[in-house]
Specification:
The complex is a heterodimer of chains A (576) and B (182). With 576 residues, chain A is α+β, with helices and mostly antiparallel strands. In chain A, 40% of the residues lie in helices and 15% in strands. Classes of the chains: A alpha+beta (576), B alpha/beta (182).
Chain lengths: 576, 182
């Protein structure tokens, strides 16, 4: 290789290169400058590089965020057909990193498992196996995770037709092999295997938990997911960039606005389009209201699970009033589809600010009521304190983010660590708790709602009274209807945008926002067409759910139910 | 008969006036279906977004219990109305069928939202294109998700159907079951 031909690296790229220079594996990895510093590596080097990245004195990439398979069949200029794209985060250096493991053509795609380096990789590798057919030698439980067991083929490969279905019968829903084994040990009660779900009131959505019980204690557990795998990523490949927004809203449907904002941010960054301040602030205000709604539902249903039904009525009332605001903005209550690439679908109603201020007045009263009812309630404390404990080290190793990670004492919040929009302008705190138990997670969520109100209050103060909410770049945003009817050029823009979609330049981008339950990342690849070539979402509750079967070992079933509630699992996002 | 020794004027069958009407004439089926229609015990098979809207319907603001459908049951053996709220995937289809089979007769099904009704905009490799591929449906409620008012309207329509004594039909699901490869 002639070093002179390679383009000069950015300072971040140079820094990464110097960090890896001490090790032969690090030297072999090629450093590239994309939106993030990116490493390209062969599968044989991957486990050694993974250890170096996690343990290297200046690397410390300890948070495994995401693994995305990519099929380059219809892409030009790529080295191999398949690649596994991993996103990592270093808490110590507050940096993201992308690693591409290039899987050589001519052999079945395979790369060694790194779940012994980052336990969080376990489920992500199963997902890549399921949807792309990557083999992971060394993986302890390489089974399909999202699709059912009677599925044939690998759905996210480019040569798989989006509508090709395979029927599953009851016998195709396989239990793990250990569920059928009987275990008898001297001095113990007889063990039994208990199957909870898929349809069970405590699972909130469709999740299947299989637990081995020794008396009342869980000795082994496994969760089966994928019952709501509705093919978000495949569907997004068949739609235009704006057409993906309704699908994105249905990921975490409890706080739909945040998903939309996260998704369009990835596209907007690729386009380099700037949004007027007013548009950004409206997004922020509604996102923070969505966060409050999400936490209300989470805490409310969690308390229902442990027998405290009253709080559910209290916590649903602010939610209904926020629904009123969102309905006034866009006409929908739950799945809003309010953002567009380049701004918002329409401007907010005239009484937006007074409505927001009225909510700011009323919500704290409900929160205080719940606080008085719950926080010092003896039953709640007995059920929450000391149950479902996740230590700081475990939380990082399992790839947890959001309130789960902060309740274990790690103050990582995307809004603070990588401020997007105007979050660096506001005065607010990142709530952190140290015990890592269910009660800590409850406290963190309660405080986050109050901090969200604080952010909204400040955002309302700097919200310009009038002005556009959309970019005026007609290559991205639809021109005003009036102009479309009277002006040829606007009509052409309108036609092109509707029929062909926005032309997003070739490239790739990982953008993250702080979702209600953790880091919500969107990894988008554009080939210059009107829609995404590949769109991978980093679902924050996927690692949470993967950790569940480890958290509850040693706990009782009733503790497991309380713990499942505090994980904030949203099936639409978990299974996509 | 009741009212015989009453001091009130006797009932005149020609004008309908007078008498004490503490009896009525009806058929047992009408009486029973009237009672059934106003004491539905729904089982929410809530899989996705629609499930969140279903929660709104039964919670404080919309309060479904005003219309006699308040006892939400999570056990199919205690329910007579299955509300399928949300997308059903091919992985979930056998589960849904089993839950339907476990419900005692008489039973009714509401398909809440377009995903349950037709697969919605998920025309995809893992999504059942309407739950009537698997089980018979009495009322389809459109919307993505339907507003609480829409679901309540769907329940009123079902109540009318129950009172009319109409039986649910199983045409599409039976046909698809016959066509399905073994």
């Amino acid at each position: 290789m002639s070093a002179t031909l390679a383009p000069a690296l950015s300072p971040a790229g140079e820094k990464l290169k110097s960090r890896l220079a001490a090790s032969p594996v690090g030297q072999r990895a090629e450093v590239r400058d994309l939106d993030l510093p990116t490493l390209e590596v062969a599968p044989s080097d991957w486990p050694a590089l993974a250890r170096l990245l996690r343990d290297g004195p200046e690397c410390r990439y300890d948070l495994f965020l995401d693994m995305a398979g990519v099929d380059n069949l219809k892409r030009t200029g790529q080295k191999t057909r398949f690649e596994a794209v991993v996103h990592l985060h270093s808490l110590a250096n507050n940096e993201h990193l992308r690693v591409k493991v290039l899987l050589p053509d001519g052999a079945p795609p395979a790369l060694p498992s790194v779940q012994d380096v980052w336990p969080a990789a376990n489920w992500f590798e199963r997902e890549a196996f399921d949807l792309f057919g990557f083999d992971f030698p060394g993986h302890p439980n390489l089974r399909r995770i999202l699709c059912h067991d009677a599925f044939v083929g690998h759905a996210l490969r480019k040569d798989y037709a989006p509508g090709q279905r395979w029927f599953a019968a009851e016998e195709d829903l396989k239990m793990p092999a250990w569920a059928a084994e009987t275990e008898t040990r001297a001095g113990h009660f007889e063990t039994q295997t208990l199957s909870i779900g898929p349809s069970h009131p405590a699972t909130h959505g469709i999740i299947h938990l299989i637990a081995r019980l020794d008396g009342e204690r869980i000795t082994r557990a496994e969760t089966q997911i994928g019952y709501l795998h509705r093919c978000f990523e495949k569907m997004s490949e068949t739609h235009t960039w704006n057409g993906v927004i309704p699908y994105a809203d249905r990921l975490n449907y409890v706080s739909a606005m945040i998903n939309g904002v996260g998704y369009v941010k990835a596209v907007e960054e690729m386009l380099g389009v700037a949004i007027p301040e007013r548009g950004v602030l409206v997004r922020t205000i509604l996102s923070e209201f969505s966060r409050i709604m999400d936490h209300c539902v989470n805490i409310g249903t969690n308390l229902v699970d442990i027998g405290a039904l009253t709080n559910f009525w209290y916590l649903y009332q602010p939610r209904e009033t926020i629904y009123g605001l969102i309905e006034a903005c866009c006409g929908a209550r739950l799945t809003v589809s309010y953002v567009r690439v380049g701004g918002l679908a329409i401007d907010v109603p005239e009484d937006f600010v007074p409505r927001c201020r009225a909510l700011l007045e009323s919500i704290p009263k409900f929160l205080d009521d719940v606080d008085r009812l719950v926080t010092n309630n003896r039953i709640v404390r007995n059920r929450f304190q000391g149950t479902g404990v996740v230590t700081k080290e475990e939380a990082i190793a399992w790839g947890l983010t959001g309130p789960m990670l902060r309740a274990s004492g790690v103050p990582y919040d995307v809004r603070r660590a990588h401020p997007y929009d105007f979050y660096d302008r506001f005065d607010w705190d990142v709530p952190v708790a140290s015990d890592g138990d269910n009660f800590s997670r409850y406290l963190v969520r309660m405080e986050e709602m109050r901090q969200s109100l604080k952010i909204i209050r400040q955002a309302l103060e700097i919200l310009p009274e009038k002005g556009p909410v959309n970019s005026d770049d007609w290559h991205v945003v639809l021109p005003p209807k009036d102009a479309v009817y009277h002006d040829m050029e606007s009509l052409i823009y309108h036609f092109k945008l509707i029929m062909e979609g926005i032309r997003v330049p070739k490239g790739e981008r990982y953008e993250r926002v702080e979702g209600a339950n953790g880091e919500l990342g969107f990894y988008a690849i554009s080939e210059g067409g009107g829609g995404p070539y590949r769109l991978k979402v980093r679902p924050p509750c996927f690692p949470n759910m993967a950790a569940f079967e480890k958290i509850i070992v040693g706990a009782t079933i009733s503790d497991a139910v309380a713990t499942l509630g505090t994980l904030n699992i949203i099936a639409g996002e978990l299974d996509r | 008969m009741a009212g015989k020794s009453s001091p009130l004027p006797a009932f005149d069958p020609k004008t309908g006036a007078g008498g004490v009407s503490d009896f009525l004439t009806t058929r047992v089926e009408t009486m029973v279906s009237w009672a059934r229609s106003n004491s539905l015990w729904p089982l929410p098979f809530a899989t996705a977004c629609c499930g969140i809207e279903f929660m709104s319907v039964v919670s404080s603001h919309y309060d479904l219990s005003r219309f006699g459908a308040e006892v939400v049951r999570f056990s199919p053996r205690q329910a007579d109305l299955l509300i399928v709220a949300g997308t059903v995937t091919d992985k979930l289809a056998p589960v849904l069928r089993k839950i339907y089979d476990q419900m005692p007769e008489p039973k009714w099904v509401i398909s809440m939202g377009v995903c349950a009704s037709s697969g919605g905009f998920y025309r995809a490799y893992h999504v059942t294109q309407g739950i009537d591929e698997i089980i018979p449906v009495d009322v389809y409620v459109p919307g993505c998700p339907p507003t609480p008012e829409e679901l309540m309207y769907g329940i009123f329509e079902l109540q009318k159907k129950i009172r009319s004594g109409e039986k649910s039909r199983d045409t599409r699901s039976a046909r698809l079951a016959a066509e399905r490869p073994a």
